[in-house]
Amino acid sequence: MRRDIFQAIADPTRRAIIVLIAIQGMTPNALAEHFDTSRQAISKHLRILTECELIKSEHKGREIYYLLEIDKMKEIDKWLEQFRKIWETRFSQLDDLLLTMKNIKK
């Protein structure tokens, strides 16, 4: 089943998993140590993130490491960029207004 990446990142635990493996690849057991939940629950989150291609698994010996798929994260960044531009424009307008108000008071 193909899931939507935004559905996947809507969950705070999955976002926290992404943050953890962005730093380095981690095994499910290592990830589970960071949460107050079962190893099975973490595996379910990993399965959803894998189905959305936000992470990938890599076998190293007997261990499975989960790694971030940077290209898929760019898809999220591209969608957020439109909002970033709006916010930056509005903050710039607010800065200009505050500077104008400050100069008027002088």
TrEMBL record:
<dbReference type="InterPro" id="IPR001845">
    <property type="entry name" value="HTH_ArsR_DNA-bd_dom"/>
</dbReference>
<dbReference type="InterPro" id="IPR036388">
    <property type="entry name" value="WH-like_DNA-bd_sf"/>
</dbReference>
<protein>
    <submittedName>
        <fullName>Transcriptional regulator</fullName>
    </submittedName>
</protein>
<dbReference type="InterPro" id="IPR011991">
    <property type="entry name" value="ArsR-like_HTH"/>
</dbReference>
<dbReference type="GO" id="GO:0003700">
    <property type="term" value="F:DNA-binding transcription factor activity"/>
</dbReference>
<dbReference type="Pfam" id="PF12840">
    <property type="entry name" value="HTH_20"/>
</dbReference>
<feature type="domain" description="HTH arsR-type">
    <location>
        <begin position="1"/>
        <end position="88"/>
    </location>
</feature>
<dbReference type="InterPro" id="IPR036390">
    <property type="entry name" value="WH_DNA-bd_sf"/>
</dbReference>
